[in-house]
Write a structure and sequence with these properties.
The protein is an alpha+beta fold. It has 2 domains: 144 residues, Fructose-1,6-Bisphosphatase, subunit A, domain 1 (Fructose-1,6-Bisphosphatase, Chain A, domain 1, 2-Layer Sandwich); 112 residues, D-Maltodextrin-Binding Protein, domain 2. Helix content is 31%, strand content 24%. It is built from 8 helices and 14 strands. A 7-stranded mixed β-sheet has the order 3-4-5-6-7-8-9, sandwiched between helices. Helix 6 runs parallel beside helix 7. It starts with 5 loop residues before the first helix and ends in a 10-residue tail after the last helix.
Length: 276
């Protein structure tokens, strides 16, 4: 398998943040913000510039690789179907995850990147821009926050757990039942940023995230980081999440036992098969 220096990639992400993101934090001009599919689906010049920088830099570090970014796919310049070709070496980029937060001056946003080789997510990076903190994982080699190896110590009582969920992405007929079930947790909220939800789980601050749509740039980096930190990530049918998956339904937890416990609680009165 190709050899990548994860720390060098992390340095490139920090450089992107310094060049394109931080100078625009709370300084965005109107012409630097536009919408895509709706009023909450935002793109900024920071998103565009970070993605373009990575498109230039990353292929040289992994010969024969291609870069697929959220914004390029949105524009039609790239196609997500390339993930079905397991012979490709692919970088998946979310140039500013949590763009809505970034635009509003909140702190929960970051840069996300995954590297797929032989159809498998082999590396994942999340950079907390304002915290200047790198989260890096390599499949089979653990997950790190800076120099510290992450090792989740899971809570076992749901009443003590913190969960993350954004109901608006769920089918409307499921929302009342899921809201009722989520009341069993100590707290359930959306951070509006998958990067921060995944990293909170990876370091043991939160315990679960429930997702209903699988955009690879949102989930491939974080799912590997959580798994390598000792957590458990699987689709609603308890099958592994892979880069080739595109249907709704993912549960991210601090342990396999908590995954099963959460599934039984949240979906006990729901015919899950019809949503797979």
């Amino acid at each position: 398998m190709a050899v990548i220096n994860p720390e060098k990639i992390a340095d490139i992400l920090a450089e992107c943040a310094s060049l394109y993101v931080l100078p625009r934090y709370k300084q965005l001009k109107d012409h630097e913000i536009s919408t895509k599919t709706g009023p909450r689906d935002l793109v900024t010049q920071a998103d565009i510039d970070v993605e373009a920088h990575l498109e230039r830099a990353l292929p040289d570090l992994l010969p024969g690789s291609i870069v697929i970014g959220e914004e390029g796919i949105s524009r039609g310049d790239s196609h997500i179907d390339v993930l079905q070709d397991t012979s490709q070496k692919i970088w998946i980029v979310d140039p500013v995850d949590g763009t809505h937060n970034f635009v509003r001056g909140k702190r929960e946003f970051g840069i996300m990147l995954a590297c797929i080789i032989d159809g498998v997510t082999q590396y994942g990076w999340i950079y907390d821009v304002l915290g200047e903190t790198h989260y890096i994982s390599e499949k089979g080699s653990g997950a790190y926050m800076g120099d510290r190896r992450l090792n989740i110590a899971p809570r076992s009582n749901i009443a003590d757990m913190t969960a993350h969920i954004n109901y608006r992405y769920f089918p409307k007929e499921l929302q009342p039942k899921i809201k009722e079930a989520m009341g069993a947790f100590n707290d359930s909220t959306s951070l509006g940023c998958a990067a921060h939800e995944y990293t909170r789980i990876a370091r043991g601050q939160s315990d679960l995230a429930l997702y209903s749509r699988l955009k690879p740039w949102d989930h491939l980096p974080g799912s590997l980081i959580v798994e390598e930190a000792g957590g458990y990530v699987a689709k609603w049918d308890n099958k592994p999440y892979t880069p080739q998956d595109d249907y709704a339904g993912l549960i991210v937890t601090s342990s396999e036992d908590n995954w099963k416990q959460s599934l039984n609680l949240i979906f006990k009165d729901i015919d899950i098969e019809q949503y797979l």
